[in-house]
Each structure stands twice: as C-alpha cells, then as structure tokens.
Amino acid sequence: MEKSISEKINSGYYRNTLPYASSKKDPAVHKAYHTEDRRLVEEFKADVFKELEIVGHPKAELLWSKAWDMGHANGFSDVYYYADELVELIR
Fold it and tell me: Which residues contact 41 (CB under 8 A, 6 or more apart)?
C-alpha cells in the first residue's frame, strides 16, 4: 500500500539529504543539491495532484501555484494544507 502524503511528509520522505555547499565553494555539490531539491518538489507536486484527484485538470497548475505561494515557506505540510483547502474551487 502506498503511503499518503501526510505519512511521507512525517517520515521525511521529501527531505533533501544531500550535502549543501555554496556555488563558490563546490559548484558540483551545489548543483546536485538543487537538482535533488527540484526532483523532490516535482514528486511532491505529482503526489498532491494524484491524492487530490486533479491530475490533468486544466486548473491544477494554478491551484499548485497558489498553494505553493501560500505555504512553501513553512514546508510541504502547509503547501498540502492549502492545496487541500483550495481544491474545492476547481471541482
């Protein structure tokens, strides 16, 4: 059985575990860290769309953009909270 988004967030599934370095100190490490960060955000986004059943919906990207803007400063759980609250507007 696949884990829910909440379970994945709580377990640290979406947490980037690669080491971080500034681009001046180690450009390769810096690039790898940000590449992994983007991959995790895209996976999280796909999971949100799937769990909220909006895959392919014409306004799914708009919903994502609003939820991301409202919640990303506080982490994935807030982004998911806002997406879940906003989804009724596009159903």
Answer: 14
